[in-house]
Amino acid sequence: MSLNNIRIVMINTSHPGNIGAAARVMKNMGLTRLYLVNPKQFPNYEATAMASGADDLLSQAIVCSSFEEALEGCRLVLGTTARERKIQHEFVNARDAGVLSISESQQHEVALVFGRERTGLTNDEIGLCHKLINIPTNPDYSSLNVASAVQIVSYEVMMSLHLLNQENVGLNANQNELDTEESADYASSENMERFYEHLQQTLIEIDFLHLEQSPQLMPKLRHIYNRIRLKQEELNILRGILSKTQKLK
Ligand code: SAH
Question: 105 vs 31, 48, 102, 183, 205, CA distance in Å?
Answer without folding.
Answer: 12, 29, 5, 10, 38
